[in-house]
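W.,

You were right to be curious about this one. When I first looked at the sequence I had no strong expectations either way, so I just let the prediction run and decided to look at it fresh. Below is the sequence, 243 residues in total, followed by the output.
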Amino acid sequence: MERQINAKAKSELAPGGKLRVGVNHGNFLLVRKDEASGETHGIVVDLARELARRLGAAIELIHYAGPGQLADAARTGAWDVGFLAAEPQRAEEISFTDAYLEIPATYLVPAGSAIRALAEVDRNGVRIAVAAKSAYDLYLSRTLKHASLVRAPGIPASYERFVAERLEVLAGLTARLLADAGTLPGSRILEGRFMAVQQAIGTPRGRDAGAAYLRGFATEIKSSGLVARTIERHGVRGVSIAP
């Protein structure tokens, strides 16, 4: 059942009748751009359009190259609703829903690496290539005790730095690392995951009525099967419905 929306929530989420949605082009599983037409499509775009339909609002997509830029723009009021991973650092500026889907993240090691398991990564001298300001960068920044992070501006750049600087480990979304492993002979993906990225919906803090509506929306699109159908429609592998 679709949630009823009150005037306050609508005015906070779609001021002036327009829903400005921040989308992260750094997450290739959820957002893609058609190079021929220039059109943006994917799971996030479908869900954003459904939200706009329920609000009775026009939609404008605000494009960001990566999650860090999207999250940083929350304080400027550049967007009203953003689709990005919920992390404690981001929650200082953004009110998040519960996750609607999750994406596992793990490590890739090069040929000949002595590292065989996730538990062996966090050791002195281990350098981990990571996409700067990604959800897993923020997570590893909080949790690593001994290994060091080597940041690069985006997922492709983190792979390039991993190879060029002969780093010990590459952190990333499992689905992407599977593709990377295919281009790097002898490399291995470590079994398991060090985290599951929690993809959620957010609005800048202070919009309490709008945030409450989004929480109900996120819950309903999972329970109704809409998220599952959207994943299937786009043929995306490597994501799952959040519990």
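Here's what jumped out at me. Residues 208-223 form the longest helix (16 residues). And, maybe more interesting for your project: The chain has a mean pLDDT of 95.

Coffee later to discuss?

I.
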